[in-house]
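Narrative of activities, Objective 1.

The group set out to show that a structural description can be obtained from nothing but a protein's sequence at a throughput compatible with the screening campaign. Below is one input-output pair from the validation batch, recorded exactly as produced.
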Amino acid sequence: MNFEKNHLIKKIFATVLAIVIAVLSLSSCSTKVKTSVSAASEINEAAYSARNNHITNTNSLIYVAKSGLLELYFDRTTYNVAIKDTSTNKTWYALPVASDGDETTPAAVLEMTLSSEGGKYKLNSQDNSVAFSSASFKPVNNGIQVTYNMALTAENALKAYNEIANGEIYASVSVTFSLADGAFYAKINSGDITVSKGYVIEKLELLNYFGASTVAESDDYIFVPDASGALIMTGSGATDAYESRSYSVYGKDKALKQASTDEISADAIMPVFGMKSSQNAFLGIVLSGDTVADITSHRKVYNEGGTYNRVGASFRITDVSYITNSTGKKTTRYVGETYTGEINICYRFLSGKNAVYSGLACACREVLIRESVIPSKAVESTDHIPLMLTVQGAIAKNSAHSYKTLSDYEQTLDLLGQLKAKGVNSITLRYKGMLDGADNQDEISSASPIKSLGSKKDFAALEQYVKTQKFTMFTDLSLVNYNKKGSSSSAAYDITGEKLRTDYNNIYSSVAGKENRTSYALNLSKLEDGVLSFMKNNKNYQVDGYSINDVGNSLYSDYSGEKHTRSNAVNIITSQLSVLGNNHQMMIENGNFCMLSNANAVVNLPTKTAYEEDGAVYKAIPFAQIVLHGIVDYSNEPINLSENSKQAFLKSIEYGAMPSYEWTYAKTDNEEFDAKYNYESQITQAADNYTLADNTIGNLRSARITNHYQIQNGVYCTEYNNSIVIYFNYNSEAVTVNSITVEPMSCIRAN
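Output recorded for this entry:
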């Protein structure tokens, strides 16, 4: 997705482009994914040239442009750039300077991995272009464009593209560095990249050494998009080995089959990263190319020398998968679609008191609003914060359309009434398991309310109560996932030509159903008609909005007849979210940022990091919450499903979230399940929790979070733009902060 697509001119362009793509795709429906049989090969690295090619020569920097407080400089010897913040005289270098460099690390402005049937090759701008004197530059509007002609030999690097012989490795990439609106931009038009015949670009890395350093102060860190955000503390002095960590923006593409590994897979809901260095910090936001982006961080291993603290983005330009057979002797290489759009990384710079992660989040919010990624309209100001209540209606048994009812319409109405009687004045109801297929929904085109939940009259009574009490009700909906009852022609296909499916553990297996379930991904060409059919079939069931439970969790390519890249998939899905959102509110589960342009709420915003928190080095932060607060309502994971419900409840207030519960009404014959999900033993405590949350942050629903920080071990503070300050104590003993006593496992608001 291009974050600028929602601007008017770009909307028009996108519409025209979509028509062109549609026409072209119709003519290529029979095109097959290219495959080849090859031996699994290691990457052939470029030969290291000389250290001088991998560092910034500060004596060779020439002034290029200025915007606001930023100045752009170009190193004419190593063809890299530097950004100077004139407010503090801090300079950020694309390549490390000699005084802060490792002797052997091949830092580069640009790196790429090429492949063919014969193997993989890794080229970089420094060893394969600058060292061969084959790089060039030219001025552009308020910036400079640098072209790196890369090859394995100087002779080939200096050739014109049409002079490259078959089998010779060559690639030419132009990068535009510019300043605008007080920000730095690095752009590549990937459709203009030229590469040797028979080769494809698998991955491209851009500015992965920007701001790299071997030194750090005690509170310096790398910011990464793990869950709602995390900090890698670079100045902690920890000496344990700390491996590279990667984060797949919007999750891994399930259409690209890869061999399973024991490596941690971290999904990122935001295409952002950053770094703090002393009294300065930068934030990187991938505005274009985010659908094919990964964020990678490296933490220097102290007392062992070598390596840098650094963070940056890489891009999967061509879909390539290597599948090895069961004997391990045969590997098939699948080559799919190539991303030909723009890569655009925006860098913002902060200093002084703003050079903290809350400052980075506030800067991120400004950019995302300007780029129409997140709504610009603030949440309606109210006196009460809603309780985020998810109710499970039905769950599927083993046979088709056979259900066990856990919360029918009448029971859900009774549950709302009990909460109201206990002082819960505002509720956002998310009704799950309401449509055919329940927890493993039918294809959207045929999904209608399950009859065993009650009559239309029963539903109307529930809807009327919600309306009378000024609550809000969302029908939970799977937009692109469906069960095996769906039509075989409706499935998306992965890169190997198989139906794109997901096998997962059934969390309700102890109550009804098999231990494992299977869902299929929808052929994206079927989505528009599916949404129209859904709206027609369910016009008599009026709700305030729809809660979409799948598109905010993952994003996939579709290799069925009409191929769709992930970038194209975003445009298709968001257009249908707009259709569903006509006169309806939209709630997105998990909250991939590419799906939030028309969102009113986010449910289950992730807070638990994929990489384990360790206190000293790796810490979770509410970065996404700071970006979103006051713009959309959101909740963390349900309190009753957390390992520590007291801590989870307090964390929801700390993060400015709606307190969230996920319940069933009817009891089952499984005591363990009921203890976790049934409302009866939890409702009184939940109502008490809600009262505390409402008294603390109830009237802050439309406010912005301006700061969040740790005061001491287990003690945190959240500040809002209306001068409200709230202290949180997770310790077993009371603490005193600014003459205010905060009791154990509690919070206190200071106006």
